[in-house]
Amino acid sequence: MSFNDLASLLDAATSRFTALMSDIHAEGRAARVVFTGGTAGIALLERLADEDIDWSRVEVFFGDERNVPADHPDSNEGQARAALLSKVDIPEENIHGYGLDGGPMDAAVQRYRELIGDGGFDLHLLGMGGEGHINSLFPHTDAVRERDAMVVAVTDSPKPPAERATLTLPAVQSADRVWLLVSGAEKAEAASHASDGAGAADDWPVAGAIGRKETVLFGLRVKKCVRNRGFSRIDL
Question: How many domains does the chain have?
């Protein structure tokens, strides 16, 4: 799905998210949703704060987390709380953070593995980097090659900080629906590997982001680069 601007992208994602939650709740069960960070991801959460959603029946997880406490400015959980979770009536026990604190990560990663079990999420929201990384799964790393564990520790992230915990491709692929929220012309090449299903996940991690029932790319419409009098312009 392509949009002319970020506002239109967020409108569509917000409407679709709200409808999905309503459908799941109509089935008489809670929804299991994985949040993402990034510009579009946090902007979506801010939009959702104004929607009519029964947050008491939403279980929130996080695709990845930096090895910092939740009250640190770089924490994905902390950003999600500021953007949405502190503004809606969601029970604290429905918010499942990693519990990282800057120290050793192994115990926290093991707890998160036990918490999510075999995964089985209703929706996994994802952002994407220009090189195609999703969560903290970067090209040509051990984490993106993981095929068994649902959660792993990352100690060598090429994007600072180096230490993180992340859901793996098996965890992403356990979700019924995977929605990619992509903004920025510099991400066009990586996005093509998601939308076309091209490329190996080792080269382009986003190529492995496939939902069991649905995979949707919410992206900005990118036009050709126009060169004029020595200047380059990319129109979105």
Answer: 1
- The closest of 175, 123, 174 to 16, measured between CA atoms, is 123
How far apart, in Å, are the Cα atoms of 200 and each of 13, 123, 175, 184?
Answer: 27, 23, 20, 22
Helices (H), 27-65: 38-48
**pLDDT tens for the chain, residues 1 to 236:** 888 889 999 999 999 999 999 999 999 999 999 999 999 999 999 999 999 999 999 999 999 999 999 999 999 999 999 999 999 999 999 999 999 999 999 999 999 999 999 889 999 999 999 899 999 999 999 999 999 999 999 999 999 999 999 999 999 999 999 999 988 767 778 777 775 555 588 999 999 999 999 999 998 875 543 333 332 222 33
Q: Is residue 230 part of a domain?
A: no
CA distance 189 to 196: 11
- Residue 232 included in any domain: no
Residues belonging to the chain = 236
Domain that holds residue 111: 2-220
Residue holding tokens 């799905």? 1
Q: Which residues pair with 198 in a beta bridge?
A: none
- List residues bridging with 151 in a β-sheet: 167
Burial of 10 (0-12, 13-18, 19+ CB in 10 A): buried
